[in-house]
Structures are given as C-alpha cells and as structure tokens.
Here is the input.
Amino acid sequence: MDITKIRADFPILSREIYGKPLVYFDNGATTQKPRCVVDAIVEEYYSVNANVHRGVHFLSQQATELHEGSRETVRQFVNAHSTSEVIFTRGTTEAINLVAFCFGEEFMNEGDEVIISTMEHHSNIVPWQLLAARKGITLKVIPMTDQGELLLDEYEKLFSERTKIVSIAHISNVLGTINPVKEMIETAHAHGVPVLIDGAQSVPHMQIDVQDLDADFFAFSGHKVYGPTGVGVLYGKEEWLDKLPPYQGGGEMIQSVSFEKTTFNELPFKFEAGTPDYIGTTGLAKALNYVSAIGMDQIVAHDQELTAYAMQRLKEIEGMRIFGEAEHKSSVISFLVGNIHHFDMGTLLDRLGIAVRTGHHCAEPLMRRLGIEGTVRASFGLYNTKEEIDSLIDGIERVRKMF
Ligand code: PMP
Here is the structure.
C-alpha cells in the first residue's frame, strides 16, 4: 500500500489542529472521505440531480441508474445473492431497528427471547429493549472473558425453544474483538434461529461475504467505510425479507394504494419508504469501489501491522491498561493510563493534534462489565501510519508526566 498516495486522496489529513499535524485516530466513530467520494456527490448534485424511480425524464432515469447501480456495487461488495436483498437505510442503527421492529412484529410474542452479547453497541441493545417494552420479549446476554472474547459454551446454553433471533456485533467498537460469527451463526441455525450481524466495525476492516457467513441479516454504515453520512445498508436473505411486514409507510414502498386497501412494493423497495438518499448511495458506491481498488487484503495486512505495533508500544507505557486482548483483534484499541481520567487524556491529546475518542463508546453495559466508566479509544483507518502511532505514544507519555 502506498500510504503517501492514499493520504493525498484525503484532503482533511493535511489539516493542522492547534498548529500540529492532524493525527486522526477516531475511525471507529467515522472515517474521513476521499476526494473521489465528495467529487461524486458534488457532480451528481450539479449535473444529474432528479428524484429517482418512475420519472420519465432523462435526469430521473440517469439518477435511477446511478442509484440502482450503487445497489449492485453493494451487492458485490458483501456478495449478496441478489440486489433484492440490499436495502438502503440511514445506517447501522436504522437497519437494526428495522429488523427488531419488523421481525419482532411478525415472529415474536410475550416470553420469546433474543440473544445479544455483553459487548453490543447501544444500537444493538435499545431496539430490542423497545421491543421488550412493546411485546414482553426477553434479552439474553452472552457473557465474555476478561480478554474480551465471547464464551461460546455459555452462548450455546442460552438457546431455548423461546429463542427467536440472535443479534451480535461482528467486531466490538470498544475491544476490537473479531467475534467468530460464522461459527455462532452455525450454532444458531442448528437451533433453527436466524442471526443479525452488526457489521458497523467489520465492513471497513475485513472482506465480507454474507453468503459464506450464512448471515440472515447484516447491517452496516456508509460513513464508517469512507462513504458519506446518512446512508447505510441492511442485507437480508430474501426468504426472511419476504416474510417481514414493511417498516415505514409512504411513497416508494407501495404497489397500489386506495383508501380501502394498499399493496406493497416488491423487495427491496418494500422497506424503503420515501425518497431515498440517492446521492448518498452514489457516494457509498464510490467509497466501496475505492476500498476495493486498494484491496481488502492489503487493508487487513496494514490494519494488523498498525495494531500489533500500537499494542506493543502502548504496553511499554507505565500504568497502561488495555481493554480487549482477544486473539482475533481488529484495529480498535481501548485503554486507560494510571488514574488519569479518559476525558483528561483525550482533551490533552487533542491539544497535540491527536483525535481519539473518550467515554463509554455507546456501550455502557460493557463498561459495567469491565468495571470502568470509560476508556480512551484509538481506532485506525487505511490512511494511518506507524509514525502517527509514535506521535500518540509520545503524546500519552507527555500527559502521563503531567499527572
Ligand atoms: N454498531 C457498532 C458496533 C458501532 O460501532 C456503531 C457506531 N459507533 C453502530 C452500531 C451505530 O452506527 P451508526 O451510528 O452509523 O448507525
């Protein structure tokens, strides 16, 4: 990977913050955008913009082709069987809410159970709690080791005849743990239970093949994979999506409407009420093509190199506590140093131009499990370098000496 060339694609990386070169280590929250993504968005607004589907005029047809072409790009990127299985959403959060709502509506009743894990993001906890409040379902939680690995024996024990769905993160946004989701899906299927994978943190960092995983549902966000904000994807197996009721009502999702009876559109449109973010989907497709052009193998190798280097260097720091030491770990590193508050560490690193995230990372139950209130989190992207990790280490040492 030619990092210098890659970095030149991201204008924001040449910014200075407080007179220091920006070191952007908050990629788990959102990634920066390459010029080609922003250019595609600007270009479509300037020269193609028109509402998609059903338009007879030239621009509408061109915009529709771009939008549906983007769906095909997503299909290829995650290796879905058909574009009918690719639903555009606002992001991972909306995709999970869609499944919790529609699957819950159709298939879950009082006393039924959903299995989630200790390391879920709030967006894979709260939608199920809303369903619990509405329908009286129960949440079962897979426990984990102190290293941050899910206990698979305990997972298997959670299944009962009331288990209706499993919903788990592919990669933890706090611990970086890469969960063995293929194996976990196999276990669930052996019990006749479908699985939703929260791929928010995995799509930017590993090759995704939804058919190989045999995932029933798979959610991710465009903005975490170098694409624009406001657009994401829910993949769902056609056999499941066909059985679910619509999520929201409105234009686009209907076949015909009368005051007496409405029939719904075919997949994937049944789940896409209203004008879609057709400009956003163009940006997302550009981002996925950008990632593909670099090559996921290269990205994974780069990630692993940065992670190994950062883990080794961080551990040299006195008082360092790292949260998440799973054998299979992605480039997300959470830590605390001595008794320095995560917020103080983050604020002082920021003065050195280093952007890290601090706090509970939308995973309060996980923080409780770890017995802490929050961490400092450094998460890497494809443009980060070992020199930037050196700057982080120097920065942490400076802060440590101040306290
Ligand atoms: N799940 C995980 C594991 C995440 O890291 C995030 C974002 N931090 C989300 C879900 C939610 O993603 P979004 O806010 O883009 O919907």
Summary: The chain has a mean pLDDT of 98. The radius of gyration is 22 Å. The CA atoms of residues 27 and 379 lie 5 Å apart. The chain has 14 helices and 17 strands.
